[in-house]
Write a structure and sequence with these properties.
The complex is a heterotrimer of chains A (179), B (459) and C (346). The longest helix of chain B is centred in the last third of the chain and has 33 residues. Chain B contains 22 helices and 3 strands. Chain B has 459 residues and is mainly alpha-helical. Classes of the chains: A alpha+beta (179), B mainly alpha (459), C alpha+beta (346).
């Protein structure tokens, strides 16, 4: 059965310490590149985006807002039922809003990525889970994350292909028989 | 026998004498019982506002985070060592807390049904709690009822059956701690199995004059995996041959132990992975209507939610994995049954699921961790100010760091699980290359899961 | 034999199971009140459908100092005590706020929620009855005093709750600002009544418009409306205006809307509810310059504020605002009609 697949000797990998090093170093470099190299994505020209947002137990409407990096974001928030709050991760924007008393906040979306906005005033049972998402595009953070997942999945797979693992105490050469 | 193990007890004699002492476990359990009773009291009598109630914050944020991020991956069942829930029942059963005074346990001596000698009941219990998680996590009084019910159930089961039936077969938390402790970097094992084989009286099973037989109904001499050893340290006290070791070992070791793999554990792995994903969608997602369903705004909507939740947990995730495992079986030309391929490869989901849970937990630990301070000063929300921190405001802590940590955690889980898929394949495959091929579909599945988590957290 | 360690462990267990609850409840209900020095009244402030203020009727002795401690179980409330200048502001769930009050006069004061907390928000009120031991009926006499303005309306057979639709209303935007100079220019030509506050508060803008049409025939309709707008919004000093604006936002805007258009977040539900009742055309009032407001008078606003709208969802604020404050709010409503301020003072 073993004839039909390419046979590799465990000795092979033993005598290729340099090859292993090359693979590991190139994987490490690839990871650094994915994390650090600037992406050639130019955000579109900044504009001003206004959102009218309603907060109610236990959601924001809209629950997702999308802007481009550099945009000026103006959010006018109203409360529909009880007192709510608004806290935007990463931007530190915070306000409290009461039914009949709308609040407006303005900021420049200078950081890209996904940022959750949460109710910051306890508003009932599901309050801790009352949140929405601001996506500041282009979302290079997510792009890099996907690339990293690819690098890890393919990297580990290639590594296992080139350098088969041995369990502790197992012989380094492949002399195994099926159970 | 194994070069990758370091026996902590030989290295640290002080630790050994502490663990051998009869004080060790009861003192810790009394300590945690204090907080447990306190949590029940705050839950029942304190403010219904969860974020200002000790029970919610210290059970579902502090305890949970410590359990899943620190205790389970590094110390396995260490929580079970200190968990107060079996305490009252066990002390009644033994008619003693520290000192052994009676040779026999005081119970009705019923026999636990053979059909339940697995973790299916724990799977059901966990799913049952998961269905109501939105209710339990947000309402102090419900949390208090759950904790109280555990305590009572522990006492009742201890009165009917010998030993820790609750811990071993019922506890919804114990089920996944057991499965995930397969990865833990600590294990309790015997130093030399032959010594146990030759030891005719088996003191560790039946007990001695001063100590008890294993309350977890485990024979240490046979221990090859962490799943059902509760680290209660009783065998250290019984063993007359000084044959018990507490080893440091590499992460994930028990996942490769073929003996003991079973469908109930495989399902535990599916349920845990599916729940981590579901919670990330329901609780962390932006969809208010879904939260309303989970929160039982109406019974009908909740019923739809429950059916969907159970379908995903019990059919969809296992179903997709079944297909994946069969693809792996065919590619690697494994000479095992489809069912065995399904069960064996399911253990690749253990590191992934654990890391998924850790990633999920990072999201609320960083955001809501600051609740822990005011609650310490005013545990009931009665306006106390014991430590002067009553008015410490809710301060989300570095949410973007949490996101980075989530990604790193998931990547570790992914890489580790792929390697486990390959290594499990090698246990059955004719060659390294075939095992490698078998790992490909599993890798695809794991990558998909990682992408899904990442999309939810970062996309 | 039970050895020493076992005995200690049993004591520890008993302390945890029995001593811990005793210590907690002993501190909360025994020691803490004893240390407080003054009588502490614990009040749960919950939305009305969950019980409102519990307790909602408190009795104190004249001259007594009590500590009122409010705790909130559900959603944010605001707690204020009418007539005493006490406003604790928002109290969030799980938060506890307390205030020490000395009651010098016999009578009845109302404490109420001033943050919109439920469709029944306005029902969230409680009373403190101050009893003078020397004169046990004093508080009842004060309570029973009738309101002269409402009495006068009833005497003149004015129906406070009927619609006050006017036949005429402005067709284009009205400007109180442009009315100011016009009033100065035509001061001599304007009827003397127009400068009499008592006359103004009994007059509807539509009635005044008819008068202007006769006395100042050369002006355009828009100019006449601007004059009226100016006169109807000119009565509040800056500080009174700020006060009224704040109270309007806190107590009224959830229904009547931030700018008075009857479109507050609670309006839709109330309108839907009113549509199912006999008064099917009734809606949360809009103060926009249209027929229903042009027929209303400051006096009617005062009466409605004071005793509420019978058969509508408009609650009475007689227990919350004194007469002077009520006039201030009644006048402020014309601001919303004729000189809308920018939404929400920051």
């Amino acid at each position: 059965m073993t004839d039909s697949v390419p046979k590799r000797s465990g000795l092979n990998s033993l005598f290729q310490p340099r090859a292993k090093g090359v693979l590991l170093v190139s994987l490490a470099l690839l990871i650094i590149a994915v994390v650090a190299v600037p992406w050639p994505l130019q955000p579109s020209a900044p504009t001003t985006r206004r959102f009218t947002m309603v907060s109610r137990q236990f959601e924001f409407e809209p629950n997702t807002i999308q802007v481009n990096q550099g945009d000026t974001v103006i959010i006018t928030l109203t409360a529909d039922d009880v007192v709510h709050g608004f806290f935007l991760d990463g931007y530190g924007v915070k306000m409290r809003v009461e039914p009949g008393q709308s609040q407006t906040v303005q900021f420049v979306a200078d950081k890209s990525g996904k940022f959750r906005y949460r109710c910051s005033v306890s508003c009932g049972t599901m309050h801790p889970f009352m949140l929405g998402e601001l996506v500041v595009g282009p979302n290079t953070t997510f792009g890099r994350a996907v690339a990293l997942i690819g690098v890890v999945a393919i990297g580990v797979t290639v590594y296992l292909w080139k350098f088969p693992l041995r369990e502790p105490g197992e012989s380094t050469t492949e002399v195994r028989s099926k159970k | 026998m194994n070069t990758t193990r370091i026996d902590l007890l030989t290295k640290i004699p002080l630790l050994k004498s502490i663990l051998k002492s009869r004080f060790f476990q009861p003192v810790l359990m009394l300590g945690t019982l204090f907080f447990f009773v306190f949590a029940i009291l705050t839950g029942f009598f304190g403010t219904p506002a969860g974020s200002k109630n000790f029970s919610i914050i210290y059970i579902w944020i502090v305890w949970w985070a410590v359990l899943i991020i620190v205790l389970v991956p590094f110390f396995g069942r260490l929580w079970c060592t200190v968990c107060p829930i079996p305490g009252p029942g066990e002390w009644l059963q033994r008619r003693g807390i520290i000192q052994k005074r009676y040779p026999k346990l005081m119970t009705l001596r019923r026999r636990w049904p053979r059909q339940l000698k697995n973790i299916w009941l724990q799977n059901v219990a966990f799913l049952g709690m998961a269905l109501f998680s939105a209710i339990i996590l947000t309402r102090p009084s419900v949390t208090a009822w759950v904790l109280f019910a555990f305590l009572i159930l522990g006492v009742v089961l201890s009165a009917i059956y010998d030993n820790r039936i609750f811990c071993r077969y019922v506890c919804p938390v114990g089920g996944f701690i057991g499965l995930y402790s397969l990865t833990a970097t600590v294990e309790l094992r015997v130093k030399d199995a032959q010594i146990c084989k030759d030891h005719s009286t088996k003191d560790c099973v039946i007990g001695t004059e001063n100590s008890y037989g294993c309350p977890w109904m485990v024979f240490p001499g046979n221990l090859e995996r962490n799943a059902y050893c509760g680290l209660c340290t009783e065998c250290l006290k019984t063993c007359p041959r000084d044959n018990i070791a507490l080893n440091l070992r590499p992460f994930g070791s028990d996942l490769l132990v073929a003996k003991g793999r079973s469908l109930d554990e495989a399902y535990k792995a599916f349920i845990m992975l599916a729940c981590a994903l579901m919670y990330s969608v329901v609780l962390l997602g932006p969809w208010g209507w879904l939260k309303g369903w989970a929160n039982m705004n109406s019974l009908g909507q909740w019923a739809i939610y429950a059916v969907g939740f159970l379908t995903i947990n019990l059919l969809i995730v296992p179903g997709l994995f079944w297909l994946t495992a069969q693809a792996a079986r065919l590619l690697a030309r494994l000479d095992i049954s489809p069912r065995q391929a399904f069960v064996d490869y399911a253990y690749t989901l253990v590191p992934m699921g654990l890391m998924g849970w850790i990633a999920f937990s990072f999201s609320f630990v960083f955001v809501n961790g600051s609740y822990a301070l005011p609650v310490l000063s005013d545990p009931f929300g009665w306006g106390w100010n014991l430590l002067g921190t009553k008015d410490f405001p809710w301060t989300p802590f570095l949410p973007q760091v949490a996101a980075a940590l989530q990604l790193i955690t998931l990547l570790i889980g992914l890489g580790f699980s792929i390697a486990i898929a390959y290594r499990i394949g090698r246990q059955h495959a004719g060659s390294d290359a075939l095992a490698w091929r078998g790992a490909l579909p599993i890798t695809a599945f794991l990558t998909g899961v990682t992408l899904l988590f990442t999309k939810l957290y970062l996309g | 034999m039970i050895d020493q360690s076992e005995r200690l462990a049993i004591i520890a267990l008993v302390l945890i199971l029995i001593g811990l609850p005793i210590a907690i409840f002993g501190y909360q209900y025994g020691l803490r009140p004893a240390l407080a020095g003054v009588r502490t009244i614990d009040i749960i402030a919950a939305a009305p459908e969950d019980g409102g203020f519990q307790p909602d009727a408190i009795e104190v002795q004249k001259g007594e100092t009590v500590r009122l401690r409010f705790s909130v179980p559900d959603v944010t409330h605001g707690v204020a005590i009418a007539g005493l200048g006490v406003d604790l502001g928002h109290i969030d769930p799980g938060q506890v706020k307390e205030v020490e009050v000395t009651f010098d006069q016999p009578g009845k004061v109302t404490f109420y929620c001033n943050a919109w907390c439920s469709p029944n928000h306005w029902r969230m009120r409680g009373t403190i009855t101050i009893i003078d031991p020397a004169d046990p009926d004093a508080h009842r006499r004060i309570e029973a005093a009738p309101d002269p303005v409402i009495e006068s309306l009833i005497e003149r057979e004015m129906d406070i709750d009927a619609p006050h639709d006017a036949a005429i209303s402005p067709n284009e935007p009205v400007s109180a600002a442009e009315g100011g100079p016009l009033v100065e220019n035509y001061r001599a030509d304007l009827p003397v009544d127009f400068f009499d506050p008592l006359w103004l508060q009994r007059q509807s803008p539509a009635e005044a418009f008819s008068v202007l049409k006769e006395t100042l025939p050369n002006l355009t309709d828009a100019q006449r409306w601007n004059i009226i707008a100016h006169l109807w919004t000119d009565s509040l000093a800056e500080s009174e205006l700020t006060w009224a604006q704040t109270e309007y936002i806190k107590n009224c805007a959830a229904c009547h809307g931030e700018t008075g258009n009857g479109d507050g977040p609670a309006a839709a539900a109330i309108n839907a509810q009113l549509a199912t009742t006999a008064m099917n055309n009734d809606k949360v009032a809009s103060f926009a310059p249209a027929s229903p407001t042009m027929g209303a008078t400051t006096e009617i606003y005062y009466a409605k504020l004071r005793r509420g709208g019978m058969g509508t969802s408009m609650p009475g604020f007689g227990d919350i605002f004194d007469t002077e404050e009520t006039w201030r709010l009644a006048h402020y409503i014309w601001r919303l009609t004729f000189a809308p301020a920018k939404p929400s003072p920051q």
